Amino acid sequence: MNAMESPAQLMEHNRIRVMVVDDTAVNRNLMEGFLRRLGFQSFSARDGQEAVQLFQQERPDMILMDLMMPVMDGFEATRRIRQAQGDRWVPIVILSALTSEKDMVAGLEAQADDYMAKPISFPVFAAKMRAMLRLLQAQRNLEDALGRMETITNAVIDGIISIDENGSIQSSNPAAAEIFGYSQGEIHGRNVNFLMPEPYHSAHDGYLAHFRATGERNVIGSLREVSGRRRNGEVFPLELGVSVVDLPDRRIFIGVVRDITERLRVRQELADNAARLQAYHDEQEREQELAQSIMVRQLRLEWLEDPRIDYAVIPASRHFSGDLVVAAHHNGTLYAMLADATGHGLAAALSAQPALSTFYRVAREGVSLAALVAEINDALTTTLPVGRFVGASILRIDQASRSGEIWVGGVPEALLLDGQGRVVGEFPSANLPLGIVSSGEIDLVTESFALGTGLQAVMYSDGVLDAISQTGVDFGPERLRDALRSRPGRARLGAVRDALASHLGGANAHDDMSLLFVDCA
Q1: Helix or strand holding residue 332 (H, E)
Q2: Of 27, 81, 19, nearest to 49 (Cα)?
Q3: Percentage of residues of the chain with pLDDT beyond 90
Q4: In this predicted structure, what is the pLDDT of residue 6?
Q5: Taking the CB of residue 244, how many other CB atoms lie within 10 A of it?
Q6: Which end of the chain, N or C, is less surrounded by CB atoms within 10 Å?
Q7: Please, are residues 160 and 255 in contact by the beta-carbon 8 Å criterion?
Q8: What's the rounded Cα separation, in Å, for the pair 385 and 351?
Q9: Cα dihedral sign for 452, 455, 456, 458?
């Protein structure tokens, strides 16, 4: 700082007020003149007693103190001002004609900050005041920083408590006091173990002693769940984090505490809910396994072992598929059906059950394809609720007449392939799905074709065409036909499954997928 810097420049947000304490008017006037010249504001007291009174009333920023005064000397006035100043440091500079070493030591031991001998040299006085002003500025900056820190600490929702090495509470924020049910003043200075239930209450001083002796940081630097004790005696769960700060003259411990009563309540509630959900899930698994076992027992799987038939049903859910592949024989006539109920899982599987039982019952009678379709449709319209229906491709192969007949409704077109896998016949979905309207209200359209060497009928659900890759692309009819082309009959199912797996790239299908291949030789 150069000689031209004024107090106002150093402390631009504060007007520095100096109290001059001297029993001699000439000295008071001289010092006030010096101070005005330096840019300070000033007021004066005529003795130590008046100085103490004015200090309480005016709260000066700095004091120039004479020693030899009536009523109360400067030594006593300095000591009393120090006791009264609290946390706010006020520089006290002694200005005295007493110049012995003993007097200077006595003045500084009375807690003065500097000592100047009279008569006062203005250049020396100005330099001393600038130096004192720098110290005052640093102190004010520190106070501001501490004030901001205290404001931040007080606004933190977690409790913050600092203790010394003996466990005595040095400071706390409002949140800490509120957590334990006290005011800040009630906990300051007490041993922190009074906030702990047993066994922590009795053991805590031992923890501190062990740390002082060994330096082992068992708790420090980590978060732990412990217990606290409120003012009313209630024991409650706390999350505690402790850090240690080594200051030049001492060591303090800072604890951050959080009441986790609500967190543990929610955690327990979630654990209870998870247990209930797991029990519900396990029960559902058992029930679904039972339902699956019952449904499988209704299938005539031996009829699907016919060498003319190749098929696959790939469910989207774990246990059940809404797709159904069945076959039945009657006096040389083969009936085969691929059905696809709305949705997937258990609900879809249940929707398809009336079609299964009706198919087996009516096929044993050797009826025409149109009659079989009508019976299945009526069973479904009677059984299924609104919004539930079953799409199907149903095939009838009559070896006696060397002819085939197919009905398609609500599923993709069926294909007729030659021995080289080329499409030689297409049977589009020309009918409504089964279960929507009664058979008397619709025309049941079937299509016929002649049997021939190497011919094979291919039926599939819409889950095959709608299988979506990880890039969002459908499998589609062209990929299906590419997989079928140039492959012999018994290799086509595997080729399609491989193509689907490659297309999905490990992703799960969103809908049930089923395929049915029937040789028509």
Answers
A1: none
A2: 81
A3: 54
A4: 47
A5: 14
A6: N
A7: yes
A8: 9
A9: negative
Q: What is the distance between the alpha carbons of residues 328 and 355, in angstroms, rounded to a whole number?
A: 13
Per-residue pLDDT tens over the stretch 148-187: 766 776 667 788 888 898 889 988 888 888 899 998 888 8
Binned at pLDDT 50, 70 and 90, residue 291 comes out as low
> SS3 letters for 239-251?
EEEEEEEECCCCE
Mode of pairing for the β-strands spanning 17-21 and 62-65 = parallel
How many whole angstroms from its chain centre is CA 73? Answer: 68
The residues, any chain, with a CB within 8 Å of residue 283's CB and separated by 6 or more, are none
pTM, full prediction: 0.53
Distance of CA 338 to the CA centre of its chain: 47
The Cα–Cα gap between 202 and 56 comes to 45
Reply yes or no on whether the pLDDT at 448 is more than 90. yes
Question: Any idea what the Cα angle at residue 508 is, between residues 504 and 510, rounded to 5°?
Answer: 100
Contact 301, 326 (CB under 8 A): no
3-state secondary structure 2-22: CCCCCHHHHCCCCCCEEEEEC
pLDDT confidence of 496, banded at 50, 70, 90? very high
Q: Report the pLDDT value the prediction gives residue 475, as an integer from 0 to 100.
A: 96
Structure tokens given for 393: 């491709």
DSSP string of 174-191? HHHHHHHT--HHHHTTSB
Tokens standing for residue 76: 């006593």
Beta-carbon neighbour count of residue 190 at 10 Å? Answer: 14
Cα–Cα distance, 479 to 473 (Å, whole number) = 11
- Confidence bin at 216 (pLDDT 50/70/90): confident
Both structure tokens of 402? 């060397």
Cα torsion through 221, 226, 232, 234, rounded to 10: 160
**Percent of residues in the chain assigned helix, strand, coil, to nearest 5:** 40, 25, 35
- Reading the block at residue 298, the tokens are 């209704």
- Please write the tens of the pLDDT for every residue from 262-280: 999 999 999 999 999 999 8
Residues 484 and 344: their CA atoms lie apart, in Å, by 26
Percent of all residues in the chain with a pLDDT value above 70, rounded to a whole number: 95
From the list 190, 198, 153, the residue with the least C-alpha distance to 182 is 190
Spatial distance between the Cα atoms of 121 and 14, rounded to a whole number of angstroms: 27
Q: How far apart are CA 442 and CA 374, in angstroms?
A: 10
515 pLDDT tier (thresholds 50, 70, 90): very high
- Find out whether 157 and 175 touch, Cβ atoms under 8 Å: yes
